[in-house]
């Protein structure tokens, strides 16, 4: 069961990456509101396939349902001290502008939700398998249970994203939690792997300055992903006003230009780290060499996909790819850090 937990953990992590890619497809196709309610879709377990299956006043029905849900959300936000966010939700009437029924968008969003439910079940199975570590490494089941809590919170945030009609900031939070989920599960899997394999105490020596540089690089990468999500939210807002994709980029503010230049800084930092880590003994470097090769490739592809969006009018196919590559960058950096940490303990 312990070996199964490690293997299934990595399958689940890959599934989360797939969900991030699908989430990018949902956004690039404008399908985020393909289902105007949550967790059902148009009040059904299986969504409709044609307009005739919906009542004539379906827009008013689901706008009112969201209004009722958002009033409860406003009360919650005020209770935890987020009064500014509460007032924004209360007063933003654009939240209740309903989109016309589109069967393609509805089913894209519905399949996205199905994948999310499947991953939630996989994380629960992971927790059950983690109980085999309860005596030899109690931290593993504790972290696995925390992953269940986090995925439940993700589901709640997903419902908020729908009820607030993709309100700016909510999507960034949704992405933030997805990245945290991946990092938490990777840490848990690595902890279990080292316990299961009973690896000897590490003798790798890494300087304090190099550890600091590793942390700085990961923090900057995390900031880059969140900044990219904010740029994407801006594009969503501009797209509602301007149908011409060719005019979107020129309407973006300074965050786009910071995000664009930021990627070159991250590439330079990671190449420098690769150069510094090559100086450690071959026995240790060979264990992370492939991960670093993948990381550099992901960074280059991410820059390429970003350039395609910037210079070719934000083509829809490039958006989910760019998002998935950003998540992969964070995951690979974290995995390299964990491997070095395990080898040096």
Q: Globular, elongated, flat, extended or rod-shaped: what is the shape?
A: globular
Output the number of helix runs: 10
Share of residues in helices: over 70%
Number of domains: 2
Structural class: mainly alpha
Distance between the termini: 26 Å
Q: Flag low-confidence runs.
A: none
Secondary-structure element pattern, one letter each? HHHHHHHHHH
Topology, number of strands = 0
Main sheet record: none
| Proportion in β-strands | under 5%
Mean pLDDT: 85
- Please give the radius of gyration in angstroms: 22 Å
Descriptive overview:
This protein is mainly α. The chain has two domains: 1-199, no CATH class; 204-345, no CATH class. 74% of the residues lie in helices and 0% in strands. It has ten helices and no strands. The chain has helices at residues 2-28, 58-79, 83-91, 103-130, 139-163, 170-197, 208-241, 254-277, 282-311, 318-344. Helix 1 packs antiparallel against helix 4 (103-130) and helix 5 (139-163) packs antiparallel against helix 6 (170-197). The longest helix has 34 residues, at 208-241. It is globular. The chain starts with a helix and ends with a helix. The model has no long low-confidence stretch (mean pLDDT 85).
Keywords:
345 residues; 2 domains
Furnish the topology, listing elements before pairings.
Elements: H1 2-28, H2 58-79, H3 83-91, H4 103-130, H5 139-163, H6 170-197, H7 208-241, H8 254-277, H9 282-311, H10 318-344
Helix pairs in contact: 1-4, 1-6, 1-10, 2-3, 4-5, 5-6, 6-7, 6-10, 7-8, 7-10, 8-9, 9-10
């Amino acid at each position: 069961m312990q070996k199964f937990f490690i293997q299934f953990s990595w399958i689940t992590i890959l599934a989360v990456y797939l969900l991030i890619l699908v989430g990018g497809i949902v956004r690039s196709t404008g399908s985020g509101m393909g289902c105007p309610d949550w967790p059902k879709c148009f009040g059904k377990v299986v969504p409709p396939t044609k307009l005739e299956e919906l009542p004539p006043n379906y827009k008013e029905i689901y706008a009112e349902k969201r209004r009722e849900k958002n009033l409860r959300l406003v009360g919650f936000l005020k209770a935890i001290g987020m009064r500014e966010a509460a007032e924004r939700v209360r007063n933003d009437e654009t939240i209740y502008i309903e989109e016309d029924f589109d069967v393609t968008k509805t089913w894209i969003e519905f399949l996205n939700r199905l994948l999310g439910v499947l991953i939630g079940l996989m994380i629960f199975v992971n927790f059950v398998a983690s109980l085999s570590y309860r005596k030899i490494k109690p931290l593993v089941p504790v972290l696995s249970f925390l992953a269940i809590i986090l995925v439940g919170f993700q589901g709640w945030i997903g419902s908020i994203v729908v009820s607030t009609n993709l309100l700016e900031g909510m999507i960034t939070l949704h992405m933030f939690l997805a990245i945290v989920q991946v990092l938490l599960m990777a840490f848990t899997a690595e902890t279990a792997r080292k316990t299961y394999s009973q690896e000897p105490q590490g003798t790798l020596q890494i300087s304090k300055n190099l550890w600091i540089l590793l942390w700085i690089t990961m923090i900057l990468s995390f900031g880059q992903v969140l900044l990219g999500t904010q740029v994407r939210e801006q594009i969503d807002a501009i797209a509602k006003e301007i149908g011409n994709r060719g005019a979107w980029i020129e309407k973006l503010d300074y965050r786009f230009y910071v995000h664009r230049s930021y990627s070159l800084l991250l590439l330079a930092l990671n190449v420098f780290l690769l150069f510094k880590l090559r100086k450690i003994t071959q026995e240790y470097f060979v264990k992370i060499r492939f991960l670093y090769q993948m990381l550099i490739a992901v960074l280059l592809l991410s820059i390429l996909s970003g350039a395609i969006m910037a210079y070719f009018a934000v083509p829809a196919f490039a958006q989910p790819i760019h998002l998935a590559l950003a998540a992969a960058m964070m995951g690979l950096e974290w995995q390299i850090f964990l491997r070095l940490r395990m080898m040096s303990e």
